[in-house]
């Protein structure tokens, strides 16, 4: 089983819709989690961190559930510019360094 | 602030040929990473440097891949000989330090092996 697994996709939603992505992780040693965004043929960029208490940034809300080992990202009032691939990322400290493990990503297309 | 620079942006080679990629991280970033991203997958870490030392190369296919960061700044990744399954985007990333989670990625090199 992969360390980080994401919902199958793609997601195709109309503008203004609310969309939620889930991601499960198998390694309880993963300590921190993030969502990265990757536009088509571009590099990944950090979108937001994920905390157990929830993390909200405008229309985006990220949540971590350690008991069930899953992470979620909620996007409200979708915009055309939200179209991208969203990567769920786990961070694990391995002694002297920390390692990021990326999920395969889920592609969101927002249509007019 | 200048971002992570990579070159070339695209490369097409035949199988069994050699290829090298170059990366210049953000100034002052001690940690440098090379990732392989196959189409439809997330980035997979190949190797991680802290300054000029290797921290993690557990997923680097060492029979054909090599990487160096001799002066602790820029880095090269080499594949010799290339296989068809090496076709991917090779992303370089850097962070201030190895304990810092935010990694800044370069634009990547898109490699096609025919």
Task: Describe the protein in words.
Chain A is mainly β and 112 residues long. Helices cover 0% and strands 57% of the residues of chain A. In chain A, strands 2, 4, 5, 9, 10 and 11 form a six-stranded mixed sheet that branches. Chain A has a five-stranded antiparallel sheet with strand order 1-3-8-7-6, with no helix packed on it. In chain A, a hairpin with a 4-residue loop joins strand 7 (60-65) and strand 8. Chain A is globular, with a radius of gyration of 14 Å. The model of chain A has no long low-confidence stretch (mean pLDDT 89). Chain B is mostly beta strands and 114 residues long. Chain B is 0% helix and 48% strand. Chain B contains no helices and eleven strands. Chain B has strands at residues 5-7, 10-13, 19-24, 31-37, 44-50, 53-56, 65-68, 75-79, 88-95, 104-105, 109-113. In chain B, the strands form two sheets. In chain B, strands 2, 4, 5, 6, 9, 10 and 11 form a seven-stranded mixed sheet that branches. Chain B has a four-stranded antiparallel sheet with strand order 1-3-8-7, with no helix packed on it. In chain B, strand 4 and strand 5 (44-50) form a beta hairpin. Chain B is globular and about 35 Å long. The termini of chain B are far apart. The model of chain B has no long low-confidence stretch (mean pLDDT 94). The chains are: A mainly beta (112), B mainly beta (114). The interface between A and B is medium-sized, with 24 and 21 residues.
Give a short overview:
The complex is a heterodimer of chains A (112) and B (114). With 112 residues, chain A is mostly beta strands.
